[in-house]
Amino acid sequence: MKLTTFIKTIMAMSVMVLFFSESQAQCSTNIKKKCMPNIAPFTPNGQANTSTVVAGQKTEVSQTFYSGQDYRIFICSDANLGTCSFKVMDQSRKVLFDSQKNDSPDFWDFKSKSTQQLIVEVTTPTSQTTSSVLPSGCVTVLVGFKKDK
Q1: Which helix (H) or strand (E) holds 2?
Q2: Would the N or C end of the chain have less CB density within 10 A of its end CB?
Q3: 7-11, 29-33, 123-127: which has the highest mean pLDDT?
Q4: ∠ CA 108-41-117 to the nearest 5 degrees?
Q5: Model pTM score
């Protein structure tokens, strides 16, 4: 009896690992094909902050931005999630930019006035489906900077 339970547990864990690996591979493909071309003319900072989310979920990432540098924050998501909104906040959570109050662009270009940690909070739209299974997919936050000439 205990051996059967152990085998079932191992099988369930294996399925979860395979599912996670497959979703991460899909996210990587999405970043390369869909996201990276849209960061131009900025240079990617080398970090792609990706989360697998379901409809209606929020995710956030914190990053350092250096004084005097021009930046682009670009939000990229799977089509089945719909158009995501995002906010950029300082460490006290004061909103510096809200995409919903700016015609919902998927990016924000700005010059950092000081070296600071900023929080990028991405919200996926709620699902309109009547199904009990919510849409899920990848959300990526890319940061690019302009190189000095």
Answers
A1: helix 2-30
A2: C
A3: 123-127
A4: 40
A5: 0.77
pLDDT in tens, 79-93: 888 889 999 999 999
User: Burial of 100 by CB count in 10 Å (0-12 exposed, 13-18 middle, 19+ buried)?
Assistant: exposed
Closest CA to 74 of 39, 118, 119, 31: 39
Question: Going by C-beta distance under 8 Å and a sequence separation of 6 or more, which residues neighbour residue 140?
Answer: 27, 30, 31, 35, 48, 49, 50, 75, 76, 77
Burial 73-89 (b: 16+ CB within 10 A, else e): bbbbbbeebbebbbbbb
- Amino acid identity, position 61: V
Handedness of CA 105, 36, 50, 118 (dihedral sign): negative
Domain residues of the chain, as ranges? 2-145
Q: To which residue do tokens 């131009």 refer? A: 40
Rounded Cα distance, 95 and 113, in Å: 15
Strands (E), the chain: 43-54, 58-65, 70-77, 85-89, 95-98, 107-111, 116-123, 136-145
The answer, yes or no, to whether the previous bond of 41 is cis (omega within 30 of 0) is yes
